């Protein structure tokens, strides 16, 4: 009997099936400063509030705000930020964690964040600690143009810069799937150069189109939210009440109309494995909601059945080997007893010193297989317990 033929199937099946993804992260970036860009800050804080409502913890959200509108001396309502003229919800509130603030919001820091090219001194709260089982929502808003987005009116990130950063993330196994959303003028040009797999991209406006604000608050004196973000939030607040929602990314994108947004919102599916059909089936909560330790069965129960059958065969083999070992020991005892009865020369009783008995090839391999197989059985049983726990 070959030991490898017994152990290999059990270890191949001992681990759980691969998961679709095991965590969701959000990178939310406002790139504008100055009071008249109040709406851009409100845009990103509105998305921040939504992903927190759907369960993504602050430890898995990177929030980048270049200006603090809540403390601006022009703010008629100090310490607050609103995205609606009725001021029903304070987006700033008491439970907000800003990871990059003020002049920390730069193109360099944004790219270093995505690609994990930061120093060891960087705290965990400012790092994107994702892996190849992480889904990431990347939302950006600000002022832009044809294939660029401005950062604080001082620098800009280009479409190729963004594409190369995502490619580095893919090569370093830093994401499973990405949903990229951008609300700016000529937004769709910013995802035109992307070339890495498993990315769904959407933007607020085509080439040579502007991104428009939705409405202003006369008491605050400026526009408080952009149209594209406003109607995304309207869908998320009305259709995605909690993480049990079955609304898909396709449902969200189908809600975009020119009459509402006043520009042609765009979507790009071609980078996604399976194309538009597969991408549209992704749940909204696969990017906006919290997911922990998701395990997805493969083969519609075939893996479970195969595993159980292999475990039964392994148990039978272990029992058989134990029986053989016991029979061999009994035979040795009988042979010794028979030899004593043949009338051979009796020897005076003497103190017997037990020493290690050399093993023959047969009983050495038998005991070796028994020990290794028992160890394999324990490991396989442990794996089965972990697997069943993950499924439950």
TrEMBL record:
UniProt-recorded name of the protein: Glycosylphosphatidylinositol anchor biosynthesis
Positions of region (Disordered): 329-355
Annotated signal peptide: 1-19
Protein family membership: Belongs to the peptidase C13 family.
Species of provenance: Podospora pseudoanserina
Lineage: superkingdom: Eukaryota
Pfam annotation, one family: Peptidase_C13
Compositional bias per record (Basic residues), positions renumbered to this chain: 342-354
InterPro entries: GPI_transamidase (IPR028361), Peptidase_C13 (IPR001096)
Functional pathway: Glycolipid biosynthesis; glycosylphosphatidylinositol-anchor biosynthesis
Entry keywords, A to Z: GPI-anchor biosynthesis, Signal
